[in-house]
């Protein structure tokens, strides 16, 4: 089948590439001409394992192409995906200007029936807005062309996006049009072998499903962070508690890892957007507000520990910081806890020597040159002359450091671990003071 995808960001590029790899003829459209030129030459704007070679192969074999021309994109296929950004407005609600601009563009150029598929994460009711806009533009053109608007949310995880797209847990389709449903079934048939993963529902339920999924996951994390804060004040070890509760299949082991807060492009934005949606209809979502508050508080836990240990004024102190991206296997620093940590350290007068396996360029781009930030080429270089080590992201490379040389290199044998990477007893045996999340040395009130 022929498919057009508007937006070559994370979701659009991964989806388009996977659809092409399954044999569809995919055209990706973006208004950024430089990005299109780069993509044609195999230069990928994001770091995502497996994506680069897949793009190159499918461009080479003619399954995947890129254009900056919306007109060409609209003419290419009946199926038109909208996969552009929905950045938060000042009040946290999702800004639909890019989604609606694409809808307008499709309506202006279309010469035949279109199935317009919304893949961007959009508030409940957006499909209706897209429909109204397309109808309005067609009416202004005096056109009687038909179209369907489908909601088809994505559930990709950064760092595992290609695999998630190739082997989806579920394919949610929101539509009540028999034609659109059959087109979507044919499109996803290659991803839907062996057992049926397709869940067809009405458009609004599909739109809410995406928010409900991310908010549920964010809730699990904030709940565990709340338990971690209680555990360390009560002399319990959250990692033991995690195993104890995860063994109940009703709870499960997934997404109950405590840490220094969730980040990324989805959870913070989607929780805020659903709070905003609830507020806008006069419903006070107490749970979502608590999830958000707890997460904001959690991002400060590490620096609070640092200041308890070294004092509030950190002038003259240097901290090694391992891990800058919001999670491993990505260079994405959107809403990353490491940013909150770094900025708080700077505010208190400290210097940061940072290392991340992928996010160094991104850090440089965000913060530029500053005297209190040194970007180091290795995790060992970051330790040199540092007072203590702070860990914000659980990259594999950080899991088994040489504790002896770590101790010799740091000025003080202190580790602040925001991801519970080590066994507190082992680290203490090496002579470290070890602050972790919900375990280790902490504020004992018992
Ligand atoms: C998430 C959803 O998982 C995905 O389905 C959706 O489509 C987009 O949002 P992503 O943002 O890529 O994906 O990251 P994810 O792996 O879910 O992690 C999000 C954040 O939660 C990270 O900061 C991570 O460190 C944190 N996290 C995750 C925890 O703190 N504890 C956990 O147990 C799991």
TrEMBL record:
The keyword Mitochondrion does not apply. Keywords: NAD, Oxidoreductase. It comes from Rheinheimera tilapiae. Its EC number is 1.1.1.22. It comes from the Bacteria. Residues 320-424 form the UDP-glucose/GDP-mannose dehydrogenase C-terminal domain. One of its GO terms (molecular function) is oxidoreductase activity. Belongs to the UDP-glucose/GDP-mannose dehydrogenase family. InterPro entries: 6-PGluconate_DH-like_C_sf, NAD(P)-bd_dom_sf, UDP-Glc/GDP-Man, UDP-Glc/GDP-Man_DH_C, UDP-Glc/GDP-Man_DH_C_sf, UDP-Glc/GDP-Man_DH_dimer, UDP-Glc/GDP-Man_DH_N, UDPglc_DH_bac. Pfam families: UDPG_MGDP_dh, UDPG_MGDP_dh_C, UDPG_MGDP_dh_N. It is an enzyme of class 1 (oxidoreductase). Pathway: Nucleotide-sugar biosynthesis; UDP-alpha-D-glucuronate biosynthesis; UDP-alpha-D-glucuronate from UDP-alpha-D-glucose: step 1/1. This is UDP-glucose 6-dehydrogenase. NCBIfam families: NDP-sugDHase (TIGR03026). The lineage of its organism: Bacteria, Pseudomonadati, Pseudomonadota, Gammaproteobacteria, Chromatiales. It catalyses: UDP-alpha-D-glucose + 2 NAD(+) + H2O = UDP-alpha-D-glucuronate + 2 NADH + 3 H(+).
